[in-house]
Amino acid sequence: MDDRNGWLALGAEPALDPDLPICDPHHHLWIYPDSSYLVEDFMADARSGHRIASTVHVECAMFYRNDGPSELRPVGETERVHQLTAPAQATATRVAAGIVGLADLRLGTAVAPVLQAHRAASPRFRGVRFGTAWDGSGKLHASHTKPSGRLMYEPAFRAGLACVAEADLVFDAWMYFPQLPELADMARDLPALRIVLDHCGGPIGIGPYAGKRDEVFSTWHTHMRTLAERPNVMVKLGGLTMSMAGYGWHKLPAPPSSAVLAEAMRPWFLACIELFGVERCMFESNFPMDRVSCSYTVLWNAFKRVTGDFSAAERRALFHDNAVRTYAL
Description:
Elements: H1 5-9, E1 21-27, E2 30-32, E3 35-37, H2 39-46, E4 51-58, H3 75-85, E5 94-101, H4 112-121, E6 125-129, H5 155-166, E7 170-173, H6 180-189, E8 194-197, H7 213-227, E9 233-237, H8 258-276, E10 281-283, H9 296-306, H10 312-326
Parallel strand pairs: 1-4, 4-5, 5-6, 6-7, 7-8, 8-9, 9-10
Antiparallel strand pairs: 2-3
């Protein structure tokens, strides 16, 4: 864990609606020289008041194999996460009950053995993420996969995605909002592929998009409306407390309250729910990436504030059931 705990403690809150079951469908475990977030760190967050019943670990280019064929090295992440979280499967919080790994979909049909290797590494393997985030301005960091522009149109990439569909796995999609039309086209052409769009579709508030929130929202909403027409796409509601969202909360003397977060994120979340329906949305923490702006408890409090007027059945779907169903937990 890094040294942000003191700052986060300044905004401590008790958990709201602590009995509401939650499946957190998006978090990471990692260890870097200046930042580590491992099982004990996540468990400390998960047991801070909310009822986190299960989670999905999503790839973050960690724990790769050091040797062997390059296309199989990311399988090391699935192996290691499976090992690290095995004891948690018998607890009240099943960390990494599902695992989403990385496979280079640019391999085309040759990616099929990689998917098989992930499954052999863990029976909890549920899907693939290959980030396509890229911006033509050149002023935003691209995904760690170093994608080219318009990757989603490339025949080999499409063939790789078809293998994901044939293997009955989920594809987690991570991109910036201007790329959403590409995803809509891909979802139309691959109707058998189950797609989960990460982080509300990647709205950005820094770089060339700084100070243009209304304009970004308008363009994003138009793209999301088209995407919602594809029944094989679901959306993760979260990712908006990352620094790239442009709210600047991480620079404040003290972290924002859940009420402040809810007010800012509400338009994005409610738009997603209106367009896709309750049955195709799920809340995510994206920790520890979103930890830059708030604690785990405060983040889930904000989500609960946004849905305060929803029915009990709708909230259970958004916070737990949709994720469990989608990732077959």
